Amino acid sequence: MPEVTEERLLSRAVMRYAMTRFERLAAEVAAQIQTYPTCDMFDDHGGAKSLWDQYSYDQQSGPSPELAMAWLDLITPHAEDVVTKLDRTEAVLLTFYCCWDQLDDPCEVVGDPPVGIFEGALVSAVMNEVARMALDHELPGEDGDHDDDWSDDDDDDGPDDV
Prior knowledge:
Blueprint: H1 6-34, H2 51-60, H3 65-84, H4 88-101, H5 106-110, H6 119-136
């Protein structure tokens, strides 16, 4: 078992904090996207109640290459917004985590005194968490309510089908 050192404990604490914080930031982005109505530009899935449902469906069914840029254009500004609203000290701390995750030297990015941030990496971390949340999102109709069926299969062939 590796020796427990102050440095090791500190880095684990920063990592745990960062993962939790990125989850909360992504939840803010998801909440913003949930306020948008569905859009005809994206595949029409009858059970979608919001653009977030459409995004989640797309992510869960295998992201459509044709829509990937449109989703990025829609979601990225929200991720950038939550990142720019971070307190500078918190952004520096989260930058350490992002640097470690990307095997960059945080000392080169953050500097001394520690004031530098890696905004692109922070936005990317939020975007990754948003995508993970979409994969975990329960789509309409999955809770046993089959009125909002996401499948393209139509089991009802018409009124004469008895």
